Amino acid sequence: MSSILRTTTANMPSLKTFMLRAEVMKLYRSVIRMSRHLDQNQRLEVRDFARNSFDSRRHITDETAIRHLLTDGRRQLDQFETAIGMSR
């Protein structure tokens, strides 16, 4: 039984990894929510762009790189919201 527990906990992400993943998901959801304010064609383009951007970086595991990408993504989202006249 202890070998099963050890195997299960060995595959668990660290708290830092878990928190970074939550931040990434929060950013993704923010992009999707922002896209609701666009017309249908733009909304689909933004959602496809976001999905492809996030999927293409899914393999990145370095915490520093992920933090950099999060900062860049938030900046881009803020700029886009400003461009379409949204404010948080």
- Gyration radius from CA atoms, angstroms: 17 Å
Order of helices and strands: HHHH
What's the N-to-C terminus distance?
50 Å
* Helix amount: over 70%
Strand tally is 0
Mean pLDDT: 88
Q: How much beta, percentage-wise?
A: under 5%
Uncertain segments of ≥5 residues (pLDDT<50)? none
Number of helices: 4
Q: What structural class do helix, strand and pairing data support?
A: mainly alpha
Biggest beta sheet summary: none
**Shape from CA axes?**
elongated
What's the domain count? 1
Task: Please tell me about this protein's structure.
It is a single chain. With 88 residues, the chain is mainly alpha-helical. It has one domain (15-84). Helix content is 78%, strand content 0%. The protein is built from four helices and no strands. The protein starts with a helix and ends with a helix.
Q: How is this structure best summarized?
A:
This protein has helices at about 1-10, 15-35, 40-55, 65-85. It is an all-alpha fold and about 90 residues long.
Map the helices and strands.
Elements lengths: L1 H9 L4 H21 L4 H17 L6 H22 L4
Helix pairs in contact: 2-3, 2-4
Entry keywords:
78% helix; elongated; 0% strand
